[in-house]
Design brief:
Elements: H1 4-13, H2 32-38, H3 44-51, H4 57-73, H5 75-80, H6 84-87, H7 93-96, H8 106-122, H9 127-139, H10 143-168, H11 177-197, E1 200-201, E2 206-210, E3 213-216, H12 224-240, H13 244-255, H14 265-286, H15 290-322, H16 327-333
Antiparallel strand pairs: 1-2, 2-3
Helix pairs in contact: 2-3, 8-10, 8-13, 9-10, 10-11, 10-15, 11-13, 11-15, 12-15, 13-14, 14-15
């Protein structure tokens, strides 16, 4: 194989080596035109001579002698000659300098790894909790009863998982108790909406909370005014293919995006900024087109802000039709 970068580096330290005939050292012969691509400086006359096919080592040595004489007696000719890579081969820079993704510091890596682990727990309810919901849904006689049971109880379990996730977040415990409660009440429905969106299957138009706990987003269960914008949002989230770290950072940003009933607003804003900065850093370490990725994530966050009230109404409408509503959701989503 022909190592372009090694050839360029060798020429920069030993320019005469680039003009040795390939057979002089017993190496494999190469196309003479290749030498022209490896030279990054020199006179135009020198470059053309290097590109000529030589049949003997003596001819190459003669060309070298002529060049060194020209350089000795007429140095201005060499200095004024245009550089080859500036005129004909601008793409040579790709061999010398490759763009690199941002490297995470050890502290950033540890922080992100921890968030990814917390997110995996948020996405993975305990088997016994899932079995209990499934068992209670089987008691229902009607299809509508089974749907409402699964829908309300999985939503309630999602809210419980969000609470557990929030309490593990770095800097959450630094807030006073009043602000912690306000953060949870103000952000829980938004976080549940995001978690539910990541369970959405566009092919079946169903939310797959687990293999046995599934419900369809159809007019039989929800009013069109509720499900149409919700489905559109779920489809967008699915198309963006969020990874666990992105979902974890988004959940944290949503939780600390509160203004109402917050005592120490500057402290809450500072915590949220920590996660926003970390999102920016993570995006830069993941893709060169990080600005577009951040734009997509902020687009989702804006949609969640606009849809959270509608989502709460949708859940409450199902609870009203069933005649009961989970206590946790009642406590979190009740209006002050």
């Amino acid at each position: 194989s022909y190592d372009h970068q090694a050839t360029i580096a060798g020429f920069q330290h030993h320019p005469e080596a680039a003009f040795q005939h390939p057979t002089a050292s017993g190496s494999q012969q190469h196309n003479p035109a290749v030498f022209q691509q490896q030279i990054t400086y020199g006179s135009q006359q020198h470059i053309l001579a290097a590109a000529q096919p030589s049949t003997s080592a003596a001819a190459v040595a003669n060309n070298q002698t002529q060049h060194h004489q020209t350089l000795h007696h007429h140095p201005q000719q060499f200095e004024s000659a245009p550089l080859l890579h500036q005129q004909q081969y601008p793409y040579q820079h790709q061999y010398q300098q490759q763009p690199r993704l941002k490297q995470l510091t050890s502290q950033e890596f540890e922080f992100i790894h921890k968030l990814g682990y917390f997110q995996s727990q948020l996405d993975s309810p305990r088997a016994e909790d899932l079995a209990a919901i499934e068992c209670r849904s089987r008691i229902e006689i009607s299809t509508e009863g089974r749907f409402s049971s699964i829908f309300l109880e999985t939503t309630n379990l999602s809210a419980l998982l969000v609470l557990e996730y929030a309490k593990r977040l770095p800097r959450f415990s630094s807030l006073n108790q009043n602000d912690q409660v306000s953060v949870l009440k103000g952000g829980s429905s938004k976080c549940v909406l995001l978690r539910t969106a990541r369970c959405y299957d566009p092919l079946s138009n169903c939310v797959l909370f687990s293999p046995s706990l599934v419900y369809a987003l159809v007019p039989d269960h929800f009013l069109p005014t509720y499900i149409n914008p919700i489905i559109t949002f779920f489809q967008k989230v699915h198309s963006y293919c969020l990874d666990n770290v992105e979902a974890a950072l988004m959940t944290a940003i949503i939780l600390f995006d509160q203004k109402a009933r917050i005592v120490h607003i500057n402290q809450v804003n500072d915590v949220q900024m920590t996660y926003l900065n970390l999102l920016n850093t993570y995006a830069k370490s993941k893709t060169f087109n990080y600005s577009e990725r951040i734009k997509q994530i902020l687009d989702i966050l804006n949609d969640i802000r606009g849809l959270s009230g509608l989502y709460e109404e949708m859940v409450q409408s199902v609870g009203q039709s069933r005649g009961q509503f989970p206590k946790l959701l009642t406590e979190l989503w009740k209006k002050a």
